[in-house]
C-alpha cells in the first residue's frame, strides 16, 4: 500500500504538489488522473524517493522508499521509457538492474519473455521504437516480481497496437492481484483500466473514489426524453423548476435532456398525468471526460483563451468587475 | 559486492570506456615512441626512463574524461534515476562506481607507464633504461595512483556538474591552463601554484627524477611537499571533492 501524507513540493515560488494526501489500495488498478502539469510525475518521483518532498511524506507499506533495501522486489516503476543508455543492450540494461537487487540472472530472461523482447534483447536500446522502449521499461519494472507497480503515462505516444498491449497488460497485472498506480491525462483510458481514481489538479487532491463513484458524483445523470409534445412536456418540467434543455437529436423530432435529481420514473409519471406521448425515455450516464472537466475546470494550469476561459482560473483571479474580454461569452 | 557488479556491467556494456582506454594507452605509448625514437647518436644514451612517461600524462586526461562520462552519461540519459530507483542508497552506489572506475584507471595507468617504458627500451637500446632508483620505481608504479586519483577527482566533478561538456571542460582546463597560468599572478602566484592538486600529482611523479636529454625543466613546477606528501595532498583533493559530491547527490533531486 502506498500512503501519502500532506505531500508538498515547491520549486522556488511554484508549488508543484500541494498538501496531497491519498492512499493507493492494494490489489487494484488505481488511476492517477490530472491535466498536464498537475503534479502527477512529481508525485511519482517523490513516491520513488527520487525527489525529496518539501514537506509531508509518502510511504510504501509504512516505509520510506529511501529506507528500502532491494526496492525492486517491492515496487517496480516505469516513469520514462527513455531512461536507458542508447548504446546498451536491453539485456545488459536489465542485467545491471537485476544485479543491483541481487536478483537471479534468470529474472532477466523471464522479464524479457514476459514483454516479448527476447528476440531483440541483444540489440542496442537506442534503436528501439517507442513501443519497444516502453516494453523494456515495463520489463524493468517487473524484474523483481514486485507487488506494487507504478506507471507514468504508459500509453503516451503509443500506436493503437501498443495501447492495446499495455491495456491488456494492466488487466493481467491486476488479475494477478498486484497493486497498480497508473497516471494519465487520458480519461477514456482510465475508464477502461482503473477501478479506483485519484484525481489531482494544480498539485491538489480533487477526488479519491472508485471510477464509477467519481463519474456519478461529478457529472450526475442526464435523462433523454423524445416526444412529439416536447414543448408541453418542457413546460410541465419547468413548473417543477428543473434544469432542462432542448436539443435537436434526429430528423424525427427533438429530444429533451433533463438534468437534475429526477428519475425516469418521475418523468414518466408526470408525462402520463398530463397525457403526453413519450417515444423514448432513457437514463444517460455522464462520461468520465465530462466528470473530469467539471471537477478540474478550475485546476487546469495553462488555459487556452477559448470558450473554456470562463470556467478557468482567469476569471477567478480577476477583480469581480472585470470580464475576460478575449474569450467568447458563454451562451446560456 | 553486488553494487560492484552493477557498475562493472554498466561500464563495460557501452563502447565509450573501451575507446577511452585504448586512446589513453595509444597516446601514452605513442608519445613515448616519439620522445625516444628521434633520439639518435650520442643523444640516445641520454634517454632516461622518465623521458618515456610524458605521454602518460596525456592518457591521464583521457581517463579523466572516461571517468567523468561514466557519471554524466547517466544524467544525460536519465539512467541515474533508474539507478537511484534500484538502489536508493545513492552514496553507496556512487562509491561503488568510483571504486570500479578508479581500479580500471589504475590498471590502464600501469599499462600506459610500463608500455611506454617498453617502447622506449626498444627504440633507445643503448640508453640506460633500467629502473633502479627509488624515484624511478615511484614513477613507474605511481602512475597507477595518479590515474586512480584523477579518476576519483573526475567522478566527483562529474557528479557535481552532471553535464558532460561542462565537466570535461573543467577537467581539461583546470590542470592544463589554470594551474600553469597561476604563476602569472604577481607575488602570490607561485605560492598558489604550489598548492594546486595536479601540480602536486606531478611533483609526486617527477620530483627528484632524472629527465636526461629532456632537461630538468621537463619535470615541471615543483611544490613545497616531498613526493609522497604531494601524493597524499592530491589524494586529499580527490577524496574531499568526492565526499562533497556524494553528499550533494544524496541530498538533491535526481
TrEMBL record, chain A:
Alphabetically ordered keywords of this record: ATP-binding, Nucleotide-binding, Transport
SMART domains reported for this sequence: AAA (SM00382)
Coiled coil: none
Hydrolase keyword on record: no
Gene3D superfamilies, A to Z: P-loop containing nucleotide triphosphate hydrolases (3.40.50.300)
Family annotation (InterPro entries): AAA+_ATPase (IPR003593), ABC_transporter-like_ATP-bd (IPR003439), ABC_transporter-like_CS (IPR017871), P-loop_NTPase (IPR027417)
GO molecular-function terms, A-Z: ATP binding; ATP hydrolysis activity
Domain ABC transporter: 2-227
Similarity field: Belongs to the ABC transporter superfamily.
Protein name, per record: ABC transporter ATP-binding protein
Lineage: Bacteria, Bacillati, Actinomycetota, Actinomycetes, Propionibacteriales
From TrEMBL, chain B:
A Pfam family it matches: ABC2_membrane_4
Key words of the record: Membrane, Transmembrane, Transmembrane helix
Transmembrane segments: 18-39, 51-72, 93-117, 137-161, 168-185, 228-249
Domain of life: Bacteria
Name of this chain's protein: ABC transporter permease
Top-level taxonomy: Bacteria, Bacillati, Actinomycetota, Actinomycetes, Propionibacteriales
